[in-house]
Amino acid sequence: MTESLPLFPLNVVLLPGAHLPLRIFESRYIDMVRECLRKDAGFGVVWRMDTEPGAGGGHAAVGTEARIRDFTTLKDGLLGIDCEGGRRFRVRATRARDNGLLIGEVSWLGEQAAAAVSPRHAVLQTLMRQVLQHKELAERIDVDIDDATSLGFTLASLLPLDLPRAQSLLEMTDPSARLDALIDMIEVVASGQSNMDT
Question: Is the pTM of this model over 0.85?
Fold first, then answer.
């Protein structure tokens, strides 16, 4: 069973629970936002892979529904929207409207049930607690540090990950495997920084 969803290919990977501010200036996307607001519906954000060397063009097969939480007219006159990542989906087929807006036939990926954080991932809970000590960040973050799914997606959205790594975390179906991957990625980043310091 598939569902039609307007798609917005971007050079970003939107993770569930993450916030995404956007400036909208193309008429097809202004129309899309208007339609989403009227229907109280979301749109799909998919990583536009044609900006990466050797990616072969197109967009990722797995994306995230963006729900519009707020909108405003920006100082430059453009439409500004603030979105939050929701459900994940897999694109089964696409077609384009006359105005160029991409419509995906998508199947929703099952919501990952709450799962306890294993002792080997306690270091990630500690890291999240340290992040939450920063008031400005804490006000924007809604996380359950005892839930592996919530912890994994929230940390992934905060860390400076490259797009292929972020996409791989989005596509993972096992919350514990996602936390394992995050620990590996943090170690790679940390070792790279220590090498630069020496």
Answer: yes
Q: Considering the domain boundaries, does residue 83 fall inside one?
A: yes
**Do β-strands 102-108 and 3-10 pair in parallel, antiparallel, or remain unpaired?**
antiparallel
How do 62-73 and 3-10 pair as beta strands?
unpaired
Q: Taking CA 86 as the corner, what is the angle to CA 83 and CA 88, rounded to the nearest 5 degrees?
A: 130
Kindly state whether residues 66 and 86 are assigned to the same domain. Answer: yes
Encode pLDDT of 46-65 as tens digits: 999 875 444 445 899 999 99
What's the CA gap between 33 and 114, in Å, rounded? Answer: 31
The CATH number of the domain holding residue 23 is 2.30.130.40
Domain of residue 154, residue span? 119-197
CB distance 80 to 22 below 8 Å: yes
